[in-house]
Amino acid sequence: MDYPERWKKKLPTEEERNQVGRHHWRPTWWQMLLLLAAIAVAAALFWPAGPTPGG
User: Fold this and answer.
1) Of 4, 10, 48, 53, which one's alpha carbon is 20 to 30 angstroms from that of 42?
2) b/e code 13-42 from CB counts within 10 Å (16+ = b)
3) What is the C-alpha separation between 55 and 52, in angstroms, rounded?
4) Are 25 and 33 in contact (CB under 8 A)?
5) Residue 7: strand, helix, or coil
6) How far apart are alpha carbons 15 and 10 in whole angstroms?
């Protein structure tokens, strides 16, 4: 029985895997600040209101 061709392919080395990992997107500091600001605005707009004064 012969294996499929895709099983015969060489697996990536540790260096190749690290290189692919470096190409993934990582947020910059201003993107993180923008995300935190968006979360704060959404929380302020949609957070359920507490007890109202007077009743």
Assistant:
1) 53
2) eeeeeeeeeeeeeeeeeeeeeeeeeeeeee
3) 6
4) no
5) helix
6) 14
SS3 content of the chain, % helix, strand, coil (to 5): 55, 0, 45
Task: Kindly report, residue by residue over 12-26, the tens digit of the pLDDT.
Answer: 889 988 888 888 778
Neighbours of 7 (CB within 10 A): 7
- Separation between Cα atoms, residue 13 and residue 16, nearest integer Å: 5
Instruction: Give CA–CA dist 27/49, Å, rounded.
Output: 32
The amino acid sitting at 12 is P
Rounded Cα distance between 39 and 33, Å, is 10
For the chain, give the percent of residues with pLDDT over 90. Answer: 22
